[in-house]
């Protein structure tokens, strides 16, 4: 079996969405002192490579523990967009030729190459995805979509939190459409370029956090 890890490691001080809880991992017990080791974790539900459930932006939407597991394991289609520029908007026409013959239930993953900037200021300047892509994917029966960026929508400048919302419009138009339709969004994927075979199998299983809006995942692509 070929396996590629699509997840960023969770570690203290790692980059998070501006304003989200910082990640802190510390020791709660040690073998020398206690005879066993236990780590204490402090992190937000959207730390590292993670899955957004509808509840993230939809009041009363499904929590992460309510997503059907069969949605989160299965065949994926990777859309390669290596020319996507910082702060550019990816339109449906730029991706359409890589999404022909898409079967309902396919997990669609977008590779922009921005994962190589994870942990740097440049990562905040990622391309964004037009909400029409979300509408077309929902209509095609896609329930899970993922990105190797911090966000499919604009990420605000930490020094200017209002910068992510253009003149009164929703700050999260892609989220509004896709999560509003009951789907789930994976963010901060890594290593998609290492998946060199077509239509890989993918697993993006979250922690079973009752009633929570999202969860870190160990995302992997594999070929049985």
From TrEMBL:
GO terms for molecular function: arylformamidase activity. Gene3D superfamilies: Putative cyclase. SUPFAM superfamilies: Putative cyclase. It comes from the Bacteria. GO terms for biological process: L-tryptophan catabolic process to kynurenine. It holds the Pfam family Cyclase. InterPro entries: KFase/CYL (IPR007325), KFase_sf (IPR037175). This is Kynurenine formamidase. It comes from Arthrobacter saudimassiliensis. The lineage of its organism: Bacteria, Bacillati, Actinomycetota, Actinomycetes, Micrococcales. The gene is kynB_1.
């Amino acid at each position: 079996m070929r396996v590629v890890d699509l997840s960023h490691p969770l570690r203290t001080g790692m980059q998070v969405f501006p304003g989200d809880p910082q990640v802190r991992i510390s020791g709660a017990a040690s073998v020398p002192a206690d005879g066993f080791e236990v780590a204490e974790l402090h992190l937000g539900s959207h730390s590292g490579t993670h899955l957004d459930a509808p509840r993230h932006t939809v009041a009363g939407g499904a929590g992460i523990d309510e997503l059907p597991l069969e949605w989160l394991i299965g065949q994926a289609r990777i859309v390669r967009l290596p020319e996507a520029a910082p702060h550019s908007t990816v339109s449906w026409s730029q991706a359409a030729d890589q999404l022909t013959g898409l079967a309902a239930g396919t997990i669609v993953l977008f590779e922009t190459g921005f994962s190589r900037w994870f942990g740097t200021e440049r990562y905040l300047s990622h391309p964004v995805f037009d909400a029409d892509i979300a509408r077309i994917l929902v209509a095609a029966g896609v329930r899970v979509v993922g990105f190797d960026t911090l966000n499919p929508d604009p990420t605000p400048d930490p020094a200017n939190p209002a910068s992510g919302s253009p003149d009164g419009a929703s700050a999260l138009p892609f989220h509004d459409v896709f999560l509003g339709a009951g789907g789930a969004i994976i963010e901060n994927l890594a290593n998609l370029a290492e998946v060199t075979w077509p239509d890989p199998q993918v697993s993006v299983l979250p922690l079973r956090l009752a009633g929570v809006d999202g969860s870190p995942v160990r995302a992997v692509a594999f070929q049985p």
